[in-house]
Structures are given as structure tokens and as C-alpha cells.
Amino acid sequence: MALMETEGFILSTMPHGDTSKIVRFFTKDHGKFSVIAKGIKGGKKKTGGVLDSLNLLKFMYYHKEGRELQLLSRFEIIDNFAGLRSHLDKLALGMAVMEIIINLVVEEESNEKLFSLVKRSLKTLELSEKNLYNIYWYFLLKFLKISGYEIVLDTCRSCGEHAGERQSLFSYNIGGIICSECSDVQGAESISVETLRVMRNLQINEPQRFMNLQVSVPATYEINNLLKKYYTFHFDGYRSPESLNLIT
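and the corresponding C-alpha cells:
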């Protein structure tokens, strides 16, 4: 049994017996897995809220191959994203990010790019004061790229011609926009110029470049609907994060 050290986000916790907790992590080095924290009596009274969902921890644990629950040894907090927790919409979007990781990421598969994306997305959410959905959409688009399902928004997925900024169609099946010349692609739906422009911006830029980007109510609805349908099409068993229902 080896003693391992890593850092990771707490995805969820649940009580185990009278004195322990099961903590599910998404870690930098070893992906997603669960540990048992023994002797954690009285929840926050003993741990001071360190073992709360969303927290980023540095921790040590005893790893045994083939064991479902690893044994947590020592832990310390790196970031509790306090500014995110004090704002309901920020918290809801942050928890939605966690739900995506819980539901779509394979157990015990290292993915440092995805870990960095989660870290960057949560910190940006914490520090932002407006246009919060932009950060969530940014996360969803980058998650798709990392997962091998990147949406192509600059060229027609059918003929390869540059699309420009004009009314286009979108295909969930072949993963991107379709130009007017290829409009016979089965299942393609209309996508507005604003939605196309916003999604391109989020896809190619880092957060500091689009935080002042305002999106209309119709385009917000369209982007949410498009991404939900795209995720549903490409990920078996996908369901929209329940945390989004908390957004005011």
C-alpha cells in the first residue's frame, strides 16, 4: 500500500457510519476517485469546512490497487473559492461544472488539461461580477475539445469552406456549422449570427478577453439549448446539471 500525494477538487461527500465520510475527488494526477476520511466527527466542527464540495485540497492518501475506497491520510486546503460561495449564481454555475465532471469523466483517468480547465473556470467565476454564463459556456466548449468532440464553428463541416459571420445551420451529428450550399445535411438546425459569434469568441479566447461580452436573452437561450442538445447527442446518459435550476 503506497502513500500518495496530489491535489484535487472535492466533487461530493457523504457520511459513512457514525464518524467517517466518503469524499469524491477530481485530482490533478490520478483523475476521479473516492477516499474514506475516517474519524471525521461532527462534520465542520472537526474539519472546519475543509472537506466541503468545490474546495481545492492538497492531500495524502494510502493507495491500494483494486480497492474501491482509498484511505485519506492528511489534507490541507488550497482554495475554498469563498467569493464563489457567497453568490448564488456563481455557486450554481460552479456546482454545474462539478456535475459535468461527476457524470462524464471516467474514473481514475489522469487528465491534467481538464484539471487546469476546472481550476481556471472556478477561479474566473469567483472573480467575475457580470456575464457569468460566458464562463460556464467557455468551460463546456473547452471540455468538448478535451474530450474529442470539439464543435467546428469557422468552416462548414460538410464542404470545408470558410463560414464567415452569417446565418448558418448547425449539425449535432457531424459537430459544427453547415453553410447554405450544404443545407441538405440531415438534422441540421438554424443558428443565429449572434450565437455563432459568441461561441467562436468563447472557443478561441481565454476568459479575460470575453468578460465584457454581453449576450442577448434570445442568444442565451439558444446557446444553452444548443449545448444541451449537443452534449445529449454525444454523451450517453447526459443530463443537464441540476445546479442550473438555482440560477436567479
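(Above: one complete record from the training split.) The chain has two domains: 2-82, 128-239.
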